[in-house]
Amino acid sequence: MNCLLVGAGAIAPEYAAGLPESSLSLAGVVDLDADRAAALAADRGCPSFADLETALERVDAPLVVNLTSHAAHAAVTRTALEAGRHVYSQKPLALDADEARSLVALARDRGLALGCAPGTPRAPSQRRAGRLLADGRLGPVGLGYAHAHVGRVTDWHDRPDSFLEIGPLYDGAVYPLALLVAWFGPVERVRVADALDVWPEREERRPSTPSHVEATLAFAAGPTVRLTASFYAPHRSREFYGLELHGDDGSLYLKGTGAMDDDRDGVRFGRVGREYVSAPPDSPTEPYEYVDAVERLAASVEAGSPSRAGGRRGAHVVAVCNAIEAAAEGDGPVAVDDCGATADPPPAPVVRPAASGEGDASGGAAGDGSGGGGEGAAAVRLPAVGFGCSRYRDGEYVERADSIATALDAGYRLLDSAELYGNEHRIGELLAAPGAPDRERVFLLGKAWRTNHRREHLLAACAGSREELGIDAFDCYALHWPSALEHRGELRRLAERPVERQEALTFPEDADGEPATDDVSLATAWENLEAVHDRGWARTLGVCNVSRAQLETVLEAGTVDPALVQVERHPYRPRNDLIDFCRERGIRVVAHSPLSAPGLLDEPALNAIGADRGLSPAEVVIAWNASQGVVPIPSSTTESHVVSNLAAGSERLAADEIARVDALRDPDFER
């Protein structure tokens, strides 16, 4: 779709830069400064104009992008709408709520699209924070603190006059306001507000409106938020565009409501009683581009449903700013018109596979970042990285409750549990505690130990694990190993038993001190495992630590194919043949022990790739797995490693880098 840029100031090149990679074409540039318009138009190979009316007559551009100065937005938008053009306006939509509402009404009456910046509620960090809200992590949200420290515009902008005329509300506060309205819906009233004219005496150019504003806002369906907007507080202060929300069950901190790039530490979560933990991206993200919102608006036009949702939200934001000004002048609590604005939060990711008869077995919400990785239609969608919950570390058993809680807070959504680990009840307590993600947001993998391959023991083991975890069904229940050992008793809460008793139950020995095996074939064990699925106790089934030949036995034995295979996988033992075999059949592969091979993290090749990408060797290994659709499940008790391992899932290695890691394969590797 052709578009016409109106305004060739500092922001215009940012919009124009994104056009070549979009579905939009630049048909012309308009600016009262003819030289400035001509310079931008020459760079883009299109005509320039010094007045809007002429441009509208001569240019075939259905969409006008209004990038003029703040005070001119409303007049330019009205002119374009009256000429029958769809409009995307920089913020604010207008400086007066009545004028903003009339623009929305005009667009509606003419059947035109109307959008308004900021579009940053769709930027990656903001989307990730929004998904944490949708995840149910905070519970009901009661309070919030939002900052818009625009800073001394006379220091950082070459033409600050437009900013000084309108003040920090209409330029800066629009970022947190737009995001909060997108998440919670409209502001119902401004409870109280105050405004200051603080400014350095040495400055010759001063704001013509208050330079610092504070207000308390009551959302109709959400928190009460204290908003601070300031030209006086520098934008390099501790808070720039930070937002902190507090709910019954936890708190969320977003570093930048107006941020366009992603930041692994830009979103932090803390459940009640615990410190904040970074919640990094766990799948690839793309920076937000200015043109993205324009392209979405154009797409709505081409689809035959011109969108005015952005215009309605922009009008409501103007109404909020007007109400803050009125409250600051002493009018008391001021009601705010919703202007038709509604909440548009990101959907919560669903990682649970569908139960039998529920449709798509892949689970996972579209756009949640969970990778398929299998070519078969039934491949289960999984998070890019999972978390291993084994208590066994460096030759001893350790308590894992704290690190598992940290993993959940950081955003891990696949937990690798097993009755062998003896801590299923601890995981169940964490999942039931305030601040835990909703059950639909966590993929729980459980595993039956080798002593429970007989049907009666396997069913009892699964029932016991479900009870300990407090769940109705596993997302996947698997055989921990393909071979069976003698049953010497139930394994519930192994962590609470003496180590000697744990070992006797899980690794039974015969009279000669050899492993006490049981005569249960892999095919029979799989058929027994299917009884778990038949009872609805597991949505999918899996098998662990198998060879390709053993996996083929499983595929031939039963009526339910495995959805998941878990094996030890790292660069020394990449198991590529098995992975290719699984991918062809839509079977997901989960890699346990991805980082623990002796000497692996000292490999020069991993260090070299990491140096090029700003990653640690461990992060390179995790990215190597994720790049091939394999889900690594690293285990760590160190918070920084828990976070960085998850963040590495957002990295994708190039083909030559994958080949360099693959070259580390060691056919003689043994533990």
Description of the structure:
The chain has 671 residues and is α/β, with parallel strands linked by helices. The protein is 35% helix and 17% strand. It has 22 helices and 25 strands. Helix 4 (73-82) packs parallel to helix 5 and helix 5 (97-110) runs antiparallel to helix 11. The longest helix is centred in the middle third of the chain and has 23 residues, at 309-331. The termini are far apart. The model is unreliable at 359-377 (pLDDT under 50).
Keywords:
671 residues; alpha/beta; 9-stranded mixed sheet; 8-stranded parallel sheet; 22 helices; 25 strands
Tally of DSSP helical segments: 22
Indicate the mean pLDDT: 93
What is the count of β-strands? 25
What does the main sheet amount to?
A: 9 strands, mixed
Question: Going across the major beta sheet, what is the strand order?
Answer: 14-13-12-11-7-10-9-8-15
Instruction: Give me the secondary-structure category.
Output: alpha/beta
List low-confidence stretches.
359-377
